[in-house]
Amino acid sequence: MIEIIYDASTLEGSCYIEVLPDKYKGECWNTSSIFFTEENFGYIMPAFEKCYKKFDYYAFNEIDIETWKLIIWELEKMKQYLSDNPTPHSLKDILGFPFVYSEEEFLGNYDTNFKQLISMITEFQSWINEKSVSAKFISVLGM
Hints:
Blueprint: E1 16-20, E2 34-37, H1 38-51, E3 60-64, H2 65-83, H3 102-108, H4 110-132, E4 137-141
Antiparallel strand pairs: 1-2, 1-4, 3-4
Helix pairs in contact: 1-2, 2-4, 3-4
């Protein structure tokens, strides 16, 4: 399932990307955070790499709100591309596929996956916009 995880208590193991509405303060699995599986975050990772040149998948990235506006716009372009019913094999030009099998798995259930991905992106954009009102930074805590 391509979705955002809101409850840290449901996580199994530690292979998740945490998005924290604040600067990193030495603690992970914050109750105010949202979480993505590696795979689900991988789909949208090109937006981060394009808009935040210092992005490091394995580090704690403290991203200012102005940069998040660029990321939101890049996610919107990604969503629009998906909404335009692209050929499945053109997706690797837009989405990130973090594992060798990721693209094949995504394409294996294409109709459901692309709808879920659009929904996840929309939900993420809303969450970012909501948190941007009170936070000066939103951090992506990598692996």
